[in-house]
Amino acid sequence: MFNKTLLAMLVGSALLLGCNSSNDDPATVPDTGIETPTPEPDTGVIALTDLDTVYGYASENGGTTGGSGENKVEITVCTGKEMINAIKNKDPSRPLTIWVNGSITLQNAKDSRIDIKDVSDVSIIGLGNQGEMAGIGFNIVRAENIIIRNLRIHHVRANLGAPGDGISMEGPVRNIWIDHNEIYNSLTVADPSLTEDQVKDYYDGLVDAKGDAQFITISFNKLHHSWKTSLVGSSDSDNYDRTITYHHNHWYNVNSRLPLFRFGKGHIYNNFYDGAIESGINSRMGAVIRIEHNHFASMKNPVMSMYSQAAGFWQLIDNIFEDITWQESPDDGVVAGEAAESTGELTPPYDYSASLLPVHNVKATVLAYAGTGKIDTPPSPGLCASPEPAEPEPTEPEPVPIDPVEPPANVDWNSYDGSLQPFADNALTLADGSLSKFEPQQSGGADEPNLFSANGDGTIRFDSTANSADRSRAKLSAVAPDDGIYPKYFTLLMGVTGNSGGNRILETEVALGDANAVAASRLKIILRNDGNNSGIQLENANNGSSVTAGKGNEPDALDMSAYRIYHFTVALSSPTTGNVAIYTDGNNTPLLKLESVTMRPASNGSDNYLQIGDAGGSSYLGDIDWVVWSNAGAYTPDMLKGLLPAGIGNISGYEAQP
């Protein structure tokens, strides 16, 4: 169905040139002394008679056809569970088109996201005006030839154990077409207890691409009411040659990231931008973006390169800037400014001339054609059946006060001293004296690569710089009591050396659940050394917001390249609430202390594990000297002087008190 040709019916007047019959010179027009007024440009709607052709980078690499083609399978779904099952059970040899005939929700999906993972040749399209993703988004991973069209995707929360984006693409992905959708969140949250930063982090991006993502077109969408609208490249070390086209989209009532584009090549043409609080297109880390025939209105800083270790570039071609506020370029970035000029050049490898509108027609045409209900779909087979009555919400036990923890006389530590690879037999010494090992994780049913290697000096290197999309994680289950009793405690210390190359260092995650629990907390720690974003990051640990201690652009920035002992304590008063603290190098004054916060939910209430490594999407590089942990208490550094296991490695700052 997607093999037609897009026709843009451009109606204009022909200019007839008079000819002089006596010679070949044009007739001389007498000078009357009266100036001929310049005609006003045509600003009307251009009739688009076919909207089913893929333009832009998704037309490359063999094109993007999704679930169309010979021998295709078509299915109509009313619930998220039906959609998930259709994707999981797809015949690899047959294209699949999923028609969405109702509202897909967290409740009827019985999951926090819709995974489009390890599949190809799939279209997911809303029927008429009935297709909706309400509070649940798509997670596209290791997939190719995927189409998402004609859906309203909205209010996808950022802290529900999922990527938190309306559409998240995490490479390797190829040939993705996101077309004629309406994707939005909210700039406000009806919770007066949240800070401004927590409101901004309540939702994540609308359309994000991370890792090795290529041959993507994002077209004819409405993108609105979002703080963090479209991210391309998760960090300054996510250095893939991404190729993405944005065309004929309507961006409005947004804050920034329109898009934020790191590395790679972008083509942005015929978009209408109407209102941006902070910034528009942010080209960073050597990205080159062709910005062509766009209409920017009522916004701040439409084109810029800010907040990265290296600038990006842009080529400006015949854009309209209307009611724009430009700020002065700061020392660490560049704002295009009123006299905006090109700083780079990009020639797209595809022909898009049939879809390129004159810039003065962009506003009216985009307003007429962007969003849902503009493409032809089959008729609905009828309304979906009413959902079954919701089951009563399970009740959590009342929070238990967290008693002060007395200094221990000794601690029965679980330990990993870095002398063996984490997956080697007897690599771990557990608190009861037994020996164990970490287990490797799987992604899509296949074992993840082992990116841990011995340095030969009693330390282990973790290195994912060869392919930042690789997941490599070492996991130990059952690290906390499975008794349903609160408070629960956890103390974790790690001796780690960072890197000087601007890469992230290590990702560590602790989940503290019970076998029969309906909810559980996890602490996700990212040690970072990537410019202004460097420091110790806790993802979604602070009532849904991420927080960073020792951040690179703050006065108390940590040197994340040096050897350091990172010390974390967790005291849970209930399955989902508690206190968290971060210390370093034996200093008893915490770098960060969170009290009575709702922590990041675990994927499942029964999750109970310690995991180290990298979940993919960014480059990590660090050396692990040792890791120790205990579930007996939330111990401060002063409580642990002289109590760390003997012979594990460098414990500077935790030696016995004199």
From TrEMBL:
Q: Which SMART domains match?
A: Amb_all (SM00656)
SUPFAM superfamilies assigned to the protein according to its UniProt record, in alphabetical order: Pectin lyase-like (SSF51126)
Assigned keywords, A-Z: Carbohydrate metabolism, Lyase, Polysaccharide degradation, Secreted, Signal
Point out the signal peptide segment: 1-24
Positions of the Pectate lyase domain: 73-302
The record's subcellular location field reads: Secreted
Which residue intervals make up region (Disordered)?
377-399, 436-457
Primary location group: secreted
Q: Does the keyword Nucleotide-binding apply?
A: no
Q: Which Pfam families match?
A: Pectate_lyase_4 (PF00544)
Gene3D superfamilies linked to this entry? Single-stranded right-handed beta-helix, Pectin lyase-like
- Assigned protein family: Belongs to the polysaccharide lyase 1 family.
**Protein known as:** Pectate lyase domain-containing protein
